[in-house]
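Our consortium's second objective concerns turning raw sequence data into structural hypotheses that experimental partners can test. To show how far this objective has progressed, the report includes one record in full. It was chosen at random from the queue rather than selected for favorable results. The single chain below, 125 residues long, was entered without modification.
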Amino acid sequence: MKKKLTQRQKRILEIKKNLLKQKQQILEEAGIMLSNLPSNSNLSEIGDIASAEIDRNFLLRLRDRERKLLKKIEKAIEKIDNGTYGICEVCGAEIPIERLEARPVTDLCIECKTEQEETEKLKES
């Protein structure tokens, strides 16, 4: 006998579907962009070489950000699969589904996230 899914579980499965789509898109775009990285070998002028290097560094930084997002996506999918998705890693409270839909890779409830950001601000100043 199949257990009926709650509304929250259905919405989490929809989030998982969107995360899988986002992951696929990032991987596809990464393949395209990495194959299109500018090469210095066909540039002769120093200005062209410098410009190409700036473009290359920008693309690699972008990749780094996407790699971090990819890790967060994979972690969220793993948590959905093992039943721990939507639970705050700091206080253990259930994260509201609206927050999960708005920020599917979050692992903190809004209160703990706000506290984390305030702590980071204090460290910076």
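The partners drew two points from this record. The chain is about 70% helix and 0% strand. The chain has a mean pLDDT of 85. Both points have been shared with the crystallography group to help prioritize constructs.
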